[in-house]
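[stage:ingest] chain + small molecule (iron/sulfur cluster)
[stage:ingest] validated
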Amino acid sequence: MTSSPAGRKILLSGSRPTGRQHLGNYVGALAQWLDLQDELECFFMIADWHALTSTYRDTTELRENVRQQMLDWLAVGLDPTKATIFAQSAVKEHAELHLLLSMFAPLGLMERCTSWKDNIVEGGNEMLRTYGFLGYPCLQSADILMYQAHVVPVGKDQVEHIEKTQDLAQKINHLYGTEADPVFRVPEWRLGNAPVLLGNDGRKMSKSYGNCIYLSEPAAEVEQKVSVMVTDPARVRKTDPGDPDKCSVWSYHKVFTDPKHYDGIQEGCRNATIGCRQCKKLLADEINARFEPARQRRAELERDPDHWRDVLREGNAAARTRAVATMERVRDKLHLYSE
Ligand code: SF4
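[stage:predict] done
[stage:export] tokens:
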């Protein structure tokens, strides 16, 4: 079985290329990845094939989204000397393993998926009623098993996907491996406790709602977006006491603001001694201070149009080396034709 040459545990994580990264992407994934790349042998994947499951009708933005995402990943500090950053579609072995896993995947296992139930069974979303969408947990399993990952960081709603990966790995190990020499390492999930940030209009943060604050946003733009953030509806006038726990601004403060300000914000809100405008200005300043170095780094990266591409090319090659080794082993274990 492939193991980490560095002797560290292997981690696989990734995200679909959605373009410029926003604060939700940072809090939900990137902030953890920055710590994990020092602790584990990390593979960070741009999941462009996964993006196709829902955007197959129009892929015109896909390449540009990869570029934007790479610029932000590098700008915030993902480090190609510490982690392997690669594009899923550049490592064709993922498609082969997806195919092989699909032979072992019971239909019921694939249908017992919350997103399938929500979108197809209950939502009646005909656009997503595709073979690819039904099988995406299988592709996800291929992504993980390809690198013999020990651990996959997940939110609560993704645990079921790792359970499916475990099921598939165990089934194949039972049929074609031995206890001493399994085909696949059975991965574990690591449950993150990242807070979920809402968009500045109080709805789920989403590019399509236009309610995101992007990491690369100029300071004035951040200030403007924070200034219209939804607050505690009970605080109509500055003299009305508020409840920070009912306010999106406070949920952002808890993530981005220096804790030394927490008591002042909470007390000031509850006894109406600070206004929302002041509270929001403090938040915007904290966000801007936090991301100014990343913005500068991004501007430098943009001046060298080939750099992100070179990083990705090297990452793809490193991922491919590992993937080729895994697939040779899998083909051998499954007694597939070999020349
Ligand atoms: S003072 Fe701050 S925490 Fe309180 S309602 Fe206004 S913006 Fe929200």
